[in-house]
Write a structure and sequence with these properties.
It is a single chain. The protein is of the alpha/beta class. The chain folds into two domains: 3-124, no CATH class; 129-372, Metallo-dependent phosphatases (Purple Acid Phosphatase, chain A, domain 2, 4-Layer Sandwich). It contains eleven helices and twelve strands. The protein has a six-stranded mixed sheet with strand order 1-12-2-3-4-5, with helices on one face. Strands 6-7-8-9-11-10 form a six-stranded mixed sheet. It is elongated, with a radius of gyration of 23 Å. The relative contact order is 0.14.
């Protein structure tokens, strides 16, 4: 992206934030019956402090106690401010229908903000099993595979969170697990100890992993080595066969979909799905599952005979109203899509990035039941 585009996005962001600060400041002043400039200045200082904490956390090692405190404070703070804006808008819309005093309005905003913040935190912290059924040509029998994506171990998630996910996977009848990237998102909590729960999975079933952009930012090679030591099979532009089901599983490194695409400026320039996939040896006549972190290169995958494409990356937008923006930004944002003869499923993710909150989405552990397609 060119400098002019970056500056334009920054200016637009500052204008949007400034407008929201003025909006909630004026409503707060009305509720508290004080001068408008007071809450506006308070909110502006809060936002400035949050941005300052974010800048500090990115200025050095993010595994230090100070950086950890800065990341947690900043991201929880910005999440609560988002809930405050949404709560204020909701109460303003309610005020159109029902008359209310400033005191009632302020109390309603406060209670709604606390309730929504608590719900968003709890909703994000507890992944739920989401069953998805898909028919695939050529399968010799029904197969159950769990997809984990975007766990984002780091400042808000660690070994305990991963252990909870593993326990839920073991409670299913899954025969295998695939992980579609972004296992880590920072150096905080990055250790082999954090990954030890995976041993309980690899003792029971095959587990395959492909990397995501945040794994690369953290330590791609180290993460892959730690996973291998715990029995996880790392797929790097390679194909493996799954038992007697006839299913082939292809895993791709994190890359762009095609040349000159928006994602072309990836950490591995010069490789794209449309270039790499044709060079992988697999039987185009047999059922094939493709794993890639970002749901891009979809047309190229369909042209190469892929039957089911599993991805993540988008988080489904994670928080309303970002969910609506994501529907526009990403061609494939969340859930199931059909592209020609191929199906694609985009997971909302088993964790969260930045704010440890979800509103309008859920942290999911996707249980894919793959059934033979009737002729």
């Amino acid at each position: 992206m060119k400098i002019g585009g970056i500056i334009g996005m920054l200016v637009s962001f500052l204008i949007l934030v400034g407008g929201l600060i003025v909006y909630i400041g004026r409503r707060t002043a009305w509720a508290l019956e004080c001068r408008e400039w007071i809450p506006i200045v308070v909110y502006a200082l809060m936002m400035g402090a949050i941005m300052g904490l974010m800048a500090f956390s990115m200025s050095g090692r993010d595994d230090s106690p100070w950086a950890h405190a800065a990341v947690v404070t900043a991201n929880v703070g910005i999440g609560i401010l988002m809930m405050l804006v949404l709560s204020t808008v909701a109460m303003d819309l309610t005020r159109v229908i029902f008359k209310m005093s400033p005191t009632i309005f302020g109390a309603g905003v406060g209670m709604l903000t606390l309730t929504m913040s608590a719900y968003a935190l709890i909703n994000a912290a507890i992944p739920r099993i989401k069953p998805v059924e898909t028919e695939l040509r050529g399968l010799s029998r029904t197969v159950q595979i769990v997809q984990l994506s975007d766990i984002h171990l780091g400042h808000f998630r660690g070994e305990r969170h991963l252990q909870g996910i593993v326990n839920k996977v073991l409670s299913t009848d899954a025969e295998a697990v695939v992980i579609t990237g972004d296992l880590f998102d920072s150096s905080y909590n990055y250790s082999g100890q954090t990954l030890n729960p995976f041993r309980q999975l690899t003792e029971r079933m095959p587990v395959w992993f492909v990397d995501g952009n945040h794994d690369i930012y953290t330590d791609d090679r180290g993460i892959k080595q730690a996973l291998r030591e715990r029995g996880v099979q790392v797929l790097e532009n390679s194909c493996e066969e799954f038992n007697d089901s006839g299913l082939q599983i292809i895993g791709l490194n994190y890359m762009a979909g095609e040349a000159n695409s928006f994602m072309h400026s990836t950490p591995r320039p010069g490789t794209t799905i449309e270039e790499v996939l044709p060079g992988i040896e697999y039987d185009r006549e047999r059922p094939t599952l493709l794993l890639h972190h970002n749901p891009v290169g979809v047309q190229a995958a369909e042209a190469e005979g892929i039957d089911l494409y599993l991805a993540g990356h988008t988080h489904g937008g994670q928080l309303f109203p970002v969910t609506l923006i994501n529907d526009v930004m990403f061609g494939y944002n969340r859930g199931r899509y059909h592209v020609g003869e191929m199906q694609i499923y985009v997971s909302e993710g088993s964790g969260t990035f930045a704010m440890p909150m979800r509103l309008g989405t859920h942290s999911e552990i996707t249980l894919h039941t793959l059934r033979p397609k009737a002729k």
